[in-house]
Amino acid sequence: MKNDIKKAVIPVAGFGTRLLPATKAQPKEMLPIVDKPAVQYVVEEAVQSGVENILLVTGRNKRAIEDYFDYAVELERELEEKGKTELLNVVRNVSEMVSIYYVRQKIAKGLGDAIYHAKGFVNGEPFGVLLADDIIDSEVPCLKQMTDVYKEHPGVILAVMKVPMRDTKLYGIIEGKRIGDRLYEVKDLVEKPEPMKAPSNIAIVGRYILTPSIFESLEKTLPGKNGEVQITDAIRNLLIKEKVYAYEFEGTRFDVGEKLGYLKANVAFALKNKELGEKFKKYLKEILQ
Ligand code: UTP
Fold first, then answer.
1. Residue minimizing CA distance to atom 1 of ligand 1
2. What does the alpha-carbon distance between residue 266 and residue 277 come to, in Å, rounded to a whole number?
3. Does residue 133's CB lie within 6 angstroms of at least one atom of ligand 1?
4. 24 backbone dihedrals φ, ψ, rounded to 5°
5. What does the pLDDT look like over 66-123, one tens digit per residue?
6. Which residues neighbour 273 within 8 Å (Cβ) at sequence distance 6 or greater?
């Protein structure tokens, strides 16, 4: 159908220094939130939002992610022989969920550069970008909420949330005009401004719908903060020729790329877990007394 988003890009080539030493020899995207690696939550969100093909932009030390979404032949045989059908299905479903493609970003030159690696895969279509650092717990998957906005307002769509003013220096911040329920037309955006210089407290989180013109813009975007090619700068350069919207999604976002956010996500998802929820709540009550 017209205006459907069928492709998504998940960049996973960053170093994950905020979670060191856990990420010294394993990808941060493989760290579990209760019983599933973080990257699986975002892959599931994409699939539940109608995405059919996913490109993972990987880098060194990220082989475990490729293995995770592949068949695990010996393990599956073992589970089959032992009659552990339920576990076998869980393991198989992971590899059969969706078509996943891989491209390698040889040097981690920033999120914008990682997304540029998706040019061939995207092949002229609009596409979603999901960062596995941001796990969003919501009734309707966040990317689905955004694709619904895209159908009415074709253009770049940024997922945003309001943050305390003191935290603006941690995010890309928009300056926008409110044009509807939870919706803003973006006039400008700034990467990680100090509170005094921030045009608002409306912060971009790790979900984007981008149009193919982003690639042309990325080609012209020079490295910005930290010497990295910032996607925020490339979107900013697009503002002259394309509509950019910011959508305040419904749901709770956890930043699992840093230690406290990672812990919070584990607690929240454990409490919601069918098998563990009640027992975990009881345990928390006990230790908090
Ligand atoms: P971050 O800013 O979280 O960087 O990247 P990072 O290296 O992953 O983590 P820290 O800050 O060192 O702890 C945001 C997203 O962009 C991807 C990351 O994998 C993450 O999903 N990324 C970043 C790339 O794919 N390539 C890059 O060059 C940079």
1. 14
2. 11
3. yes
4. -65, -45
5. 999 988 999 999 999 999 998 898 888 888 888 999 999 999 899 999 999 999 999 9
6. 34, 35, 280
CA distance 233 to 245: 15
Domain ranges of the chain: 7-288
Q: What are the structure tokens assigned to 161, written together? A: 């949330």
Is any ligand 1 atom within 6 A of the Cβ of residue 118? no
With a 6 Å cutoff on the Cβ, whether 110 touches ligand 1 is: yes
Answer whether 121's CB lies under 8 Å from 9's CB: yes
How far is it, in rounded angstroms, from Cα 51 to Cα 209?
12
User: Which is nearest to 110 in space by CA: 236, 256, 227, 234?
Assistant: 227
Distances (CA, A) of 120 to 10, 112, 117, 153, 273: 15, 15, 8, 25, 39
Domain 7-288, CATH class in plain words: alpha beta
How far is 58 from 13, CA to CA, in rounded Å?
5
Residue type (1 letter), 288: L
Could you tell me which of 126, 143, 159 has the C-alpha nearest to residue 45? 143
Q: How far apart are CA 150 and CA 153, in angstroms?
A: 5
Give dist(CA 231, CA 238) in Å, integer: 11
Backbone dihedral angles phi then psi of residue 253, each to the nearest 5 degrees: -105, 135
Task: Output the residue whose Cα is nearest ligand 1's atom 4.
Answer: 14
Per the DSSP assignment, residues forming a β-bridge with 254 are: 135
Q: How confident is the model over 38-54, as pLDDT tens digits?
A: 999 999 999 999 999 99
d(CA 27, CA 14) in angstroms, rounded, equals 9
Name the residue with tokens 């994950």. Answer: 16
Q: First-to-last CA distance in the chain?
A: 55
